[in-house]
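Example record for the data management plan.
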Amino acid sequence: MERRVFRAMGTEIELLVDADGADAALEAAEQEFHRLESLLSRFRADSQLSRLNRDGVVEAGHDLLRVVALSLDGRERTGGRFDPTVHDALVAAGYDRTFDEISSTARSDTWLPAAAGGDVTIDGERIQLEPGVRLDLGGIGKGYAAERAAELLATAGPCLVNAGGDIALRDGSWPVGVDDALTLELSNCGLATSGRDRRHWRRGERELHHLIDPSTGEPSDSDVLHVTVVASDAVEAEIAAKGLFLAGAERACAEADAAGTPAVIVTGDGRRLLAGGIA
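Corresponding structural encoding:
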């Protein structure tokens, strides 16, 4: 087993490949993360995403087009719970810089929530935003990068890519710990976790987090602490996890069961609920 760890997209990335002499594949997978970060990060002024947010329109490359299209499809399928247009709501809440910078910066305890749900149009290679709309692709961008890196690593052997909890797997059988008491045996799929217990900060007396409810423009008041989902790939898992988090625990269990989406839901009061076929 060969392993590589590095930082990209604001988190620790872990690459595992069950093969010897996989240096070239590991290097290619790492460079793919850095390449995609340079295109998709809202924190880099020269990224394609930042140009789109600044100008409202861009002739996009394949990757930005694909991630935006996947995001819009996710918005449609989750009834608007997953929504890439929460950029301004995140900024208004205080997530206007990298998380490391947020956690060390004092903030006013008041702000005005920003609306989400604006129009985004894809016409060939052109992406156009409705005036006043900007995109955040942080979570789905990590899932997409994990999948692209896994494709490259798989040329060397069975592999696992972990992008801060967004996991992509190819071939083999991999034990993945969801918590101290539950380990799932997974292969050729993706896993993602959405929660309010990792990226959070304070504004005055209020603790805020990065999971915006598009219907209010504020950090969600869901009774879910975090939810972990297994899906066909890391992108699908990311979309489903965000949707189930915002649904609240009772509805999330019902939706996961109905869709056959394996999910582990932990509530704010410490209950762990298994749904979607996990027993």
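Summary line stored alongside the record: Helices lie at 23-40, 48-55, 62-77, 87-93, 99-102, 138-153, 234-247, 249-259.
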